[in-house]
Predict the structure of Vacuolar iron transporter.
Amino acid sequence: MAENGHKDRDEKHLLLLQDHEEKHFMSSEIVRDIILGVSDGLTVPFALAAGLSGADVPSSIILIAGIAEVAAGAISMGLGGYLAAKSEADHYSRELKREQEEIIAVPDIEAAECAEILAQYGVEPHEYEPVVNALRRNPQAWLDFMMKFELGLEKPDPMRALQSALIIAISYVIGGSVPLIPYMLIPAATKALLVSIALTLGALLFFGLVKGYFTGNQPFKSAFQTVLIGAIASAAAYSIAKVFQRA
C-alpha cells in the first residue's frame, strides 16, 4: 500500500511538471556574449569613423581603417572571451578536485557544511538529517550538491570557451559593419558620416531595446543608455580630431 501511495504521488508530481511551463530564459551566457560583441562592435568602429571624418580623411581611408579595426577588435574580443571562459573552467576543475579530496578526507565536516546549507533555507534538523545521509550514500550527488550550493559553481560546458570566442567575434564583426556601410557607398566622408550617425544610432536603439528585453531590464531605458554611450563616444572622437586638426 505504501509503495502504491509513493507511486501515485510521483505520477502526480510528473503530471504537474508537465503541465507547468517555465518562462525563464536559460541562455544567459550566449546573450551576454552577443551583447558584449555587438555593443562594442557598434560603438568602437563608429567612434573611429567619426574621429577620422572629423580629421577630413577620405571615405576610402576611413573604410580601410575601419575594416582593420573591426578585424583586430574581433580577434581581440574573441580571444578575451576564450581566455575568460577557459579561466572559469580551470577554476571549476581545481575546486572540484579540492572538494572531492575533502569529502574523502573529512566527510563529517563536509556533512556538517551540507547540513548548515540546508538550515539556511529553513530546513529543520529532523528534516535535513535524512537528506544529508542520503547524499553521503551517493558521493557524486554529494559532490554536485556542494559544488553548487556551497561554492556556487555550475559545471561549465566543455565547448564554452570556443563558443564564447566565436560568438563574441562574430557579433563584433556584425556590429562593426553597421557604421562602415555608408563609407562603402558614399565617397564624401562628411556625407557618409551623417548617414553613419543615423544608421548606427538606429542600430544602437534597436539593439538597446532587444538587450533590455532579454536581460529583463526596461527596454526603453536600456535603449536610451545604449544610444547615449554610442553618441558620447563618437562625439568625443570627432571633437578630439577637430581640435588636433586645428592645432
Q: What stands out?
A: The chain has ten helices and no strands. The first helix runs from residue 2 to 19.
